[in-house]
Specification:
711 residues; Alpha-Beta Plaits; Rossmann fold; eight-stranded mixed β-sheet; six-stranded mixed β-sheet; 51% helix; Adenylyl/Guanylyl_Cyclase_3/4; adenylate cyclase activity; A/G_cyclase; Class 3 adenylate cyclase; TPR-like_helical_dom_sf
Length: 711
């Protein structure tokens, strides 16, 4: 190994050597007896050249010596070599023996590069900042479809909206646009209230700005907001919180703003009044569910359905939500009595075309945490809310009720009903009659009495039914098995009572559709038999009529009989969400996409927060697929999967819709999720069991195959 040797002493030589080290970004050694710095390397100056000038130039710029004698700026291989070493010209530095430093030029270059890299890393760390921020992620709904229809016009309109509305609105609310994507943007705010206010203002302004455009060409945004620590680096932002905001946005619909619980907790009461609790959803790559809320922009908002929102307020009929009643009892385990009272009232009122009754499942969440009834009414979009309590003592029962008008919070009526426990069902009928005639005076009493449920002969069977129904909502294998056993006991204890047979039929339907029945044909027959038995016991049981119709179409392929019974179900219970959704499924099976969408939308409106909402949303997604609206199908399928990640038919719909929309990578991801749940899934065995007519089945199988599902 050869070295350029620099000999330094006090004076000009020492200063020159010090300057050289300073330019290299290295510690400057002292004069005299400093220990020599000796490192490896192998670059040399050419014969006769002044090594000091070459060294100074090369180290200062991080370049290697040119062995040919040309400019030192040339980049050479690290193993460049010379014929022989040349020492420092005595005319440049005095060669006295007060100190010696030996370094190879290549080593000096390497040390200089390392020093600059370290300074760069320190500078990078200094530029990277971490702080708490509200992240707003926004995306244009159906941008691919809009671009395919009119690419240049769509791009021009989007750029115009950015300049005139989006960027100014973000600035006015103290935010910063981090980046514009092709069809959306990412912004940060110092506070959650500022981000929420900006998003809602934007949605209102965008609605007004695009109101005169054709619906098919209208630009609408979905938005998501999350509050989290972010990393700010060179004006861009990073971190898991940014990903969460983007994923929340993907669950929103047009005009919707979906926010995390952390954001919702920090906004003011006025903003909270625009919100709806969507419950917990699973986000991709997150093991734990995230609780989220949907914010409606309020006046001027887009007239679209929101995931998790009832839209009962858009219906001309009187609408009502019955909240879970409180229980006051000296004995534990009597909550089933209050549940039964609410269930009976809902069942009776659901038989009226003049009333719009929110499903029982959609109000269950309000039994666990008491919320002002007016707030609940506004969230569910109903005109009336009924709250109540059940008191039990020494065989006596008192049912207290309060009917509240949501418009002004006024109490329309407050009543109490006293009797013996053995008179429970008569009390329920009296409450239903009073309630219906109070909020809809034009309902004839005899029509109400037609819908009153036939009551059980004993409370034990009734209790078993209510326990089984609550277990059915959970949809896990253990709860499902226990529910089946309880329903068997309830049917045996009171063979004349219809509801246990109705829910037993539903149990068999879900066993075939989602729980991996070991005997699908046997379960199909059992479902039909149980539903028919319920109809024989109560011909006005809308749920029994709907289940029997669904079994005929889904399991037995008799769509003519199915549609007849489904029409009867809707006529018997126009506010029974399951009747509308099952009708949507059958209309889709036969290829009537538009009617399937209409019926699916009605089912979803009636069950905005039902434990089975994943099923309602999944059927609506399927209806949109059949209608050819793949963007809507994807949106509803994603919402359904978020509410229940293990439902297979929804994953099939999601995979097929993504493939049909040309989003291959996302389709493959959905297919992979399905195969994790059902590793033995094969198209060749699935296709013969699929209930679609051939005109729907052929492209459906093709899209599933394109998504990557195996034959």
């Amino acid at each position: 190994m050869a070295f350029v040797t620099i000999t330094a002493r006090r004076g000009s030589g020492e200063a020159r050597t010090g300057a050289l080290f300073h330019r290299a970004g290295l510690p400057v050694p002292g004069a005299g007896g400093d220990p020599a710095h000796r490192v490896g390397g192998g670059a040399f100056a050419r014969d006769g050249r002044r090594a000091s000038s070459v060294l100074g130039s090369c180290v200062g710029n991080g370049r290697r010596v040119d062995p040919t004698g040309s400019s030192p700026a040339s980049d050479l291989p690290a193993n460049a070599f010379m014929r022989k070493p040349v020492w420092v010209d005595p005319g440049t530095l005095s060669c006295q023996h007060s100190g010696k430093l030996e370094l190879s030029l290549a080593a000096m270059n390497a040390m200089a590069r390392d020093a600059r890299a370290e300074r760069g890393r320190e500078s990078l760390v200094a530029k990277m900042q971490r702080h708490l921020a509200a992240i707003l992620s926004a995306d244009v709904v159906g941008y691919t479809r809009l671009s395919e229809a009119a690419e240049e016009a769509t791009h021009h309109r989007l750029m115009s909206l950015r300049a005139s509305l989006i960027d100014p609105c973000v600035r006015e609310h103290g935010g910063r646009i981090v980046k514009h994507t092709g069809d959306g943007f990412l912004a940060t705010f110092d506070s959650a209230p500022a981000a929420a206010s900006c998003a809602l203002s934007l949605q209102r302004a965008l609605t007004a700005a695009t109101a005169d455009q054709p619906a098919a060409l209208r630009i609408a945004f979905r938005m998501g907001i999350n509050l989290a620590d972010i990393i700010l680096d060179n004006d861009d932002i990073f971190g898991d919180g940014v990903n969460v905001a983007a994923r929340l946005q993907s669950y929103a619909e047009a005009g919707d703003v979906i926010v995390s619980e952390g954001v919702f907790e920090k906004v003011d009461e006025a903003t909270k009044s625009l919100g709806f609790d969507m419950g917990e959803i699973f986000l991709r790559n997150h093991e734990r569910p995230v609780r989220v809320f949907a914010l409606r922009p309020g006046p001027g908002a887009l007239p679209t359905r929101k995931i998790g929102e009832s839209h009962a307020g858009t219906d001309a009929r009187a609408s009502i939500a019955i909240l879970p009643f409180r229980v006051n009892s000296t004995r534990s385990g009597k909550s089933f009595v209050a549940d039964g009272v609410v269930d009976s009232i809902i069942h009776s009122l659901s038989g009226h075309k003049e009333l719009f009754v929110i499903s029982r499942g959609s109000t269950l969440q309000y039994g666990q945490r008491r919320i002002d009834p007016v707030t609940v009414g506004r969230k569910l979009g109903v005109r009336y809310v009924m709250d109540g309590a059940v008191s039990l003592s020494n065989g006596r029962i008192r049912i207290s009720t309060e009917l509240i008008a949501n418009e002004n919070g006024a109490v329309v009526s407050a009543d109490h009903y006293d009797g013996k426990m053995s008179e429970l069902f008569d009390l329920q009928d009296r409450i239903s009659l009073k309630l219906a005639t109070t909020i809809a005076p034009h309902i004839r009493e005899r029509e109400l009495r037609r819908t009153l449920r036939k009551h059980p002969q004993n409370l034990t069977g009734y209790d078993l039914l209510l326990q089984a129904r609550d277990l059915l909502y959970k949809m896990d294998a253990d709860s499902f098995a226990r529910a089946g056993g309880l329903l068997q006991q309830a049917m045996a204890l009171d063979p004349s009572y219809a509801p246990p047979f109705t829910y037993a039929a539903l149990w068999h339907v879900f066993r075939v559709g989602e729980l991996g029945s070991p005997d699908p044909d046997g379960d199909a027959r059992a479902a039909a038999e149980r539903a028919l038995a319920a109809i024989e016991r109560d011909g006005n049981d809308a749920l029994a009529l709907a289940i029997y119709g669904h079994v005929q179409a889904f399991l037995l392929r008799d769509t003519v009989t199915a549609q007849r019974f489904l029409d009867r179900a809707i006529d018997a219970g126009p506010s029974v969400a399951m009747a509308w959704t099952m009708s949507s499924a059958t209309r889709g099976f036969v290829g009537n996409g538009p009617l399937a969408v209409l019926h699916g939308e009605q089912g979803q409106r009636l069950a905005p927060a039902d434990p089975y909402r994943f099923w309602h949303e999944g059927i609506l997604a399927q209806a949109h697929y059949i209608s050819g609206d793949y963007d809507q199908a994807i949106d509803w399928a994603r919402s359904a999967v978020a509410h229940n990640p293990s439902i297979r038919f929804t994953l099939r719909t999601l995979a097929a819709s993504l493939a049909a929309a040309g989003r291959q990578a996302e389709a493959a991801s959905a297919a992979d999720r399905l195969l994790l749940l059902q590793p033995d899934f094969r198209l060749t065995s699935y296709a013969p069991r699929c209930p679609f007519v051939p005109s729907i089945l052929e492209p459906w199988i093709g899209h599933l195959r394109r998504a990557g599902l195996p034959d």
